[in-house]
Design brief:
globular, Alpha-Beta Plaits, alpha+beta, homodimer, 4-stranded antiparallel beta sheet
Chain lengths: 100, 100
């Protein structure tokens, strides 16, 4: 399981628009082959702070996500909402193990 | 869905012991009522860096985790392995929605 935590801070006032655009990305992403998680989190302490928790079975599936229409639409939709560049942090998923 | 991202850095050399203790915690935690995720991640950039991604259906289920034998055993086992105090960051899970 290959995971990226994407840390996002949006311009105050753009939260609802970001959530709506990200809901659409979530709904399509979880149907991609090889997608294991696409959870959208909002900071409990900062209403403008979000994390996308994206897990794929392998590197090829993660890379394929970046080529999908829904990812590209999301990328363009949220570009003007970013208060700062978003930051993707890569992890190797240890547990659950692949296939479990 | 209530989420905590627990950021951990272990003392170099203690990684394998931490992974083994955390595997036991993972296996028991995913069987708790109300547990939705208990993913164990290792930083792709820092072999001593880990994140526990813990998601529960509600606050009561999250609190109950801290009372389980497996949590308490993990807490005691890993205490001497910590290179710095671990840091739990709380989030509200927006998607997937509860029940989906």
């Amino acid at each position: 399981m290959q995971v990226t935590l994407v840390h996002v801070r949006v311009v105050p006032g753009q939260e609802d628009a970001f959530i709506e655009a990200t809901r659409r990305n979530h709904e399509a992403s979880v149907r991609e082959p090889g997608n294991l998680r696409f959870d959208v989190l909002r900071s409990a302490d900062d209403p403008s702070g979000f994390v996308l928790y994206e897990a794929y079975a392998d590197d090829a599936a993660a890379k394929a996500h970046k080529q999908t229409d829904h990812y590209l639409a999301w990328r363009d939709a949220v570009a003007p909402m970013m208060a700062e560049p978003r930051r993707g942090v890569p992890y190797d998923g240890l547990f659950p193990r692949a296939g479990s």
